[in-house]
From TrEMBL:
Protein name per UniProt: Cell division protein FtsI (Penicillin-binding protein 3)
Segments of skewed composition (Low complexity): 7-16
Position of the signal peptide: none
Alphabetized Pfam families for the sequence: PBP_dimer, Transpeptidase
Length: 640
């Protein structure tokens, strides 16, 4: 067969027989296909196969070489499942007065980089369209018009123009105002939130606590209203309810930015339970006010007080002189958030002598009228103990020992009681263990184990040194005496009300028999002499605690504080305490007070009895407590 002429490189020359034959063949096939359907069918199949081959090649390219780029592009806009915050339950006092509740608010947010890109692009294509700066100026002006003094217009403008993907503009916007803003500027992002409101501000703040938004820095969509202190923290699970779930589309360039209008609910949220407390907000307010004022006059470092129901152990009020406003946590001194009445133990001093009194009567060691020869001092191991006032040997009645707060007389009785029986009663009074009231960071106080007692330990404990307790525990001791010898652990949550309205009462704690009813009544009767106002030597230590028309039982206390520099007891730093029962003949309330390092040269700094008088007088009127049927009898404290 003849070959076509070739070029020196072996290629067919242009216009040669080989090149011409291909072109002619193609023309022939094209011409034949017009006349022959079968040819057209074959051509079509060839074209389809070619298209599929091309698509396959493209698919390999996409999957093998462009997968990472496309994945990143798809990530810019995706569907995400997020929480629907549940409505947080309210907290109320015993009369239904709301101390904490939630209200719906809106947070306005913005995507500066995305909006700058969009609006600057529009301005380039349309010379009459406003650019990014012009539009953000308009938005800032409108927000200032709608929200007024709640915002700083220049600060908002700065946020609108930040070089970032996402920024929060304004928190806690009323829903109606937020809708007005988004109607005009639909580009604005919004987040529905619940604002926690505390109508009373500092009222009962240490009890109720505070809740606020906590945010996960890695994902701003994961935010929830959570308790930070007080019952808001301790009972957070009950108050917070169960979040719901919804699907949202997130914006290009920031997976944490939700595209408005793309929310689809999956599961509704279940609201939290409401909580009814045992406290009375009116009494709580009065106690806080009177305690703060008295502490200022006494120049005390701090002060705390508790009012407890004598029968049930329900806490009607619990206060510290330094408090905080949970509505303004940003400006709060965190030290003031410490609930000293529950978290901070102290040495009670002579208030603790009620244990020796109860033990001596319970074990038939003495009677109120018995007379004891009480010297001015006595040696305990290598330590000499004295009374607060100088005296020789006095013929004091048992009642007089406690009414005049004689350390020596108390230790004489304690030695007859014995260490074991005294230690047993410390345990029954609940000292050295938490009360279980349910408030955060409660301290158990401190009582040395009997196995660790030294020779001087039993010279300290009966007079209230060498052990520690909280104000709440101190009130609990006297609650047992007021309740005919049965100690009932304190409560502060009265009931919870579920989302459906079902009320669940907090079970009354099981009481502990501390002493017999007769012993408890006798102790109450003896301690009436503490407020006895008679000429010396038959005057008690706290006549200022008396309330006209009522029998009052109580006990004063003055405890030396340990000087951290020397490790020994200080001669000028004290805890001043008082605990009283109103009224003594038919107990209704117990009031416990502690002043930390008051100026003892001042009248208010030397005794908490006047403060008890003010608190008890208010309670007698508020709760219309019946007058005592007869005044307290005058009894001899020192035999003449």
């Amino acid at each position: 067969m003849a070959r076509a002429p070739q070029s020196p490189g072996g290629r067919a020359r242009p216009g040669s027989a080989a090149g011409g034959t291909g072109a002619v063949a193609a023309k022939r096939v094209g011409a034949q296909s017009k006349r022959n359907p079968r040819v057209r069918y074959v051509v079509t199949r060839i074209l389809l196969v070619s298209a599929l081959v091309a698509a396959g090649i493209k698919l390999i390219e996409v999957q093998g070489f462009q997968a990472e780029a496309l994945s990143e592009r798809a990530e810019r806009q995706r569907t995400t499942e997020v929480d629907i915050p549940a409505e947080r339950g309210s907290i109320m006092d015993r009369n239904g007065v709301k101390l904490a509740f939630s209200m719906e608010v809106v947070t306005l947010a913005w995507r500066p980089q995305a909006m700058r890109e969009q609006w600057d692009k529009e301005a380039r294509t349309d010379p009459e369209a406003p650019d990014f700066n012009e539009r953000t100026t308009e938005i800032a002006d409108y927000l200032a018009e709608v929200l007024g003094e709640a915002i700083d217009r220049d600060e908002i403008l700065g946020k609108l123009r930040e070089d970032t993907t996402f920024v929060y503009l304004v928190d806690n916007v009323e829903p109606t105002k937020a809708r007005k803003i988004t109607d005009r500027f639909p580009e604005m992002d919004t987040e529905q939130r619940a604002l926690r409101e505390y109508p009373g501000g500092p009222l009962a703040a240490h009890i109720v606590g505070a809740a606020n938004w906590r945010m996960d820095d890695k994902d701003v969509r994961k935010h929830n209203l959570r308790g930070l202190s007080g019952l808001e923290s301790a009972r957070d699970n009950e108050l917070s309810g169960t979040p719901g779930r919804k699907l949202v589309d997130t914006a290009e360039g920031n997976s944490s930015v939700v595209i408005p209008g793309t929310e689809r609910d999956l599961q509704p949220a279940t609201p939290g339970s409401d909580m009814e407390l045992t406290i009375d907000s009116d009494l709580q307010y009065t106690l806080q006010d009177q305690l703060t004022s008295y502490a200022e006059k006494a120049r005390a470092r701090s002060a705390s007080a508790v009012v407890m129901d004598a029968k049930t152990g329900e806490v009607y009020a619990l206060a510290n002189d330094k408090t905080f406003d949970p509505n303004n946590l940003e400006t709060t001194n965190t030290d003031n958030m410490n609930n000293v009445a529950v978290t901070t133990p102290f040495e009670p001093g002579s208030v603790n002598k009620v244990i020796t009194a109860a033990a001596a009567l319970e074990h038939d060691i003495t009677t109120p009228e018995d007379v004891h020869q009480v010297p001015g001092s006595m040696r305990i191991a290598d330590h000499v103990v004295s009374d607060a006032w100088s005296h020789g040997t006095l013929p004091m009645t048992t009642t007089g020992i406690f009414a005049k707060s004689s350390n020596i007389g108390t230790l004489q009785l304690a030695q007859q009681v014995g260490e074991q029986r005294f230690a047993d009663l410390l345990d029954k009074f609940g000292l050295g263990e938490r009360t279980g009231i349910g408030l955060p960071a409660e301290s158990p106080g401190s009582v040395p184990a009997q196995s660790q007692w030294s020779g001087t330990t039993f010279g300290n404990l009966p007079i209230g040194q060498g052990l520690s307790m909280t104000v709440l525990q101190m009130a609990g001791m006297y609650q047992a005496i007021a309740n005919d010898g049965v100690r009932v652990p304190p409560r502060i949550v009265k009931s919870t009300i579920g989302p459906g309205g079902d009320r669940e009462e907090t079970p009354e704690p099981k009481g502990t028999r501390v002493v017999s009813p007769d012993t408890a009544k006798t102790v109450r009767d003896m301690l009436r002499a503490v407020v006895q106002d008679e000429p010396t030597p038959n005057n008690g230590t706290a006549p200022a605690a008396s309330v006209e028309g009522y029998q009052i039982s109580g006990k004063t206390g003055t405890a030396q504080q340990v000087d951290p520099a020397t490790g020994a007891y200080s001669s000028d730093k004290y805890w001043i305490t008082f605990t009283g029962i109103l009224p003594a003949d038919d107990p209704r309330f117990v009031v416990a007070i502690m002043l930390d390092q008051p100026e003892t040269t001042l009248p208010e700094g030397s005794s908490a009895a006047p403060l008890f008088h003010d608190i008890a007088s208010y309670m007698a009127q508020r709760y219309q407590i019946p007058l005592s049927k007869k005044p307290s009898p005058t009894v001899p404290l020192v035999q003449q």
